[in-house]
Amino acid sequence: MTGFSLLFTVLLGLPLGILLFLSGRSSSPAQKALYAVLSVVVNVLRSVPFIILLIVLIPLTLLLVGTSLGVPGTIPPLVIGTAPFFARLVENVLRDIDKGVIEACQSMGATTRQIVIHALLPEALPGLLAAGTVTTIALVSYAAMSGVIGGGGLGDLALRFGYQRFQTDVMIVTVAILILLVQIIQFLGDRLVRHFTRK
Questions:
Q1: How big is the chain by its Cα radius of gyration, in Å?
Q2: If you ran DSSP here, which 8-state letter would residue 18 be given?
Q3: Is 1 helix (H, G, I), strand (E, B) or coil?
Q4: pTM, two decimal places
Q5: pLDDT for 63-86, tens place per residue?
Q6: Number of C-beta neighbours around residue 61 at 10 A
Q7: Coil, strand, or helix at residue 198?
Q8: What is the dihedral of CA 149, 155, 158, 159, to 10 degrees?
Q9: Could you count the other beta carbons within 10 Å of the beta carbon of residue 57?
């Protein structure tokens, strides 16, 4: 559940974050208008609590995958809930890149696509990996919440057995597994960031 959701989150959130960055720094009125629209959409999706988003998106989920239950029914809300979050992180990471890098590429006649692929993304890789780590941890949290709509996984286990059947031991074990999972993800993310950070 988390793996597939993370894949689609990156596939949607990375281009969206790049588009936010490029349109936000442009002096063109059309680009500024595009940035304003994208920014509002991203902020709206980020501001809706995920548990509400799960329920609101049930009709769309049914349309996309034919069910609102189980892993397939959980992936669309997870992606829609985290892609804007990841996109905003990507935008912030790109903003932190030295403007001299972009100016040097422009002075050599590089196109926007070349600047993004050959300069911005390689330069921002450690920051993007850190953003991906934060997003993955958020996905783990959201995936646990999906148990409310029968999404399966640890959240469903904690809800059906730990809460509804008052099995405190199941609840404690579930929480311990979630904590351990988050610690492993953060550890691996930190290792990757250190590995790709230029000394």
A1: 19
A2: H
A3: coil
A4: 0.85
A5: 888 877 777 888 888 899 899 999
A6: 22
A7: coil
A8: -20
A9: 21
